[in-house]
């Protein structure tokens, strides 16, 4: 079978990601993002849930004016939208807001109300996964705020890896950080954070599917509480 030019380019990109994951494992978050900026330029973006703006802030130091992609699902807390607007106003980034094909009302009309209660995987697919797939088409690499200490499902997150689903380089510059590291960076640089983090929420997602965490629970326990679901599908 003949290998096409596109297939070769994809294999080269995958090999680049896997090598960088090994080479940059012990690098600082800023060094990882500087590598991404130098390697991909405008074909690199940051995604942010606006739980905090730590990775966006780091990326703006490595690449001023970097694109920061935000998914507006239509179900966000007001505080999350406010954090997005503040980040756009005060940081040296270009916030890009992606929206689903359907409004919440249109989705309710087609699938019935409160789809997130009856079929949360489908709701996430319609309102998060598909919009992100469309929004990332212009990029070769994207950065996330995933950390290994957040939950068992994220314990093996590489600092640079290969996103097989989207055929892109996936960068998690703070994968090795702890919550203490995040808090220290926020304090040192005055980074914007979602006010809900001061109100008992350890991880902030869509309002209908997010609750405050209890003492001793991991940071992701407040997401889809009472269900086996732990991820929205963006990262697996």
Write the layout of secondary structure elements.
Elements: H1 5-23, H2 29-40, E1 44-47, H3 54-62, E2 66-71, H4 78-90, E3 93-98, H5 104-111, H6 115-118, H7 120-135, E4 141-143, E5 160-163, E6 168-171, H8 179-189
Parallel strand pairs: 1-2, 1-4, 2-3, 4-6
Antiparallel strand pairs: 5-6
Helix pairs in contact: 2-3
Subcellular location: Cytoplasm
Function: Catalyzes the formation of sulfite from adenosine 5'-phosphosulfate (APS) using thioredoxin as an electron donor.
Catalytic activity: [thioredoxin]-disulfide + sulfite + AMP + 2 H(+) = adenosine 5'-phosphosulfate + [thioredoxin]-dithiol
Features:
single chain, 236 residues, alpha/beta, 39% helix, 11% strand, globular
Spatial separation of the terminal alpha carbons: 30 Å
Tell me, what's the shape?
globular
- Could you tell me the strand content as a percent range? 5-15%
Strand order of the largest sheet: 3-2-1-4-6-5
* Strand and helix order: HHEHEHEHHHEEEH
Fraction in helix: 25-40%
Low-confidence segments: none
Q: Mind telling me the C-alpha Rg? A: 18 Å
Give me the number of helical elements: 8
Could you describe the largest sheet, including whether it forms a barrel? 6 strands, mixed
What average pLDDT do the residues reach? 91
Care to count the β-strands?
6
Structural class by helix and strand composition: alpha/beta
């Amino acid at each position: 079978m003949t290998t096409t030019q596109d297939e070769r380019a994809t294999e080269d990109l995958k090999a680049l990601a896997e090598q960088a994951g090994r080479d940059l494992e012990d690098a600082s978050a800023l060094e990882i993002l500087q590598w991404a900026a130098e390697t991909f330029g405008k074909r690199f973006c940051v995604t942010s849930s606006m739980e905090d703006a730590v990775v966006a802030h780091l990326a703006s130091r490595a690449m001023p004016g970097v694109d920061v992609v935000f998914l507006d699902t239509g179900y966000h807390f007001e505080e999350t939208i406010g954090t997005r607007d503040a980040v756009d106003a005060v940081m040296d980034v270009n916030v890009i807001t992606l929206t689903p094909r359907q409004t919440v009302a249109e989705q309710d009309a087609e699938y019935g109300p409160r789809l997130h209660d009856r079929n949360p995987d489908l709701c996430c697919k319609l309102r998060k996964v598909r919009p992100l797939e469309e929004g990332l088409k212009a990029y070769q690499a994207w950065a996330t705020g995933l950390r290994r200490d957040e939950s068992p499902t994220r314990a093996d997150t590489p600092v640079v890896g290969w996103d097989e689903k989207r055929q892109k380089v996936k960068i998690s510059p703070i994968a090795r950080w702890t919550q203490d590291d995040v808090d220290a960076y926020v304090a040192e640089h005055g980074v914007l954070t979602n006010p809900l983090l001061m109100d008992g929420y350890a991880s902030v997602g869509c309002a209908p599917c997010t609750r405050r965490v209890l003492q001793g629970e991991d940071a992701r326990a407040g997401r889809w509480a009472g269900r086996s679901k732990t991820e929205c599908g963006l990262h697996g």
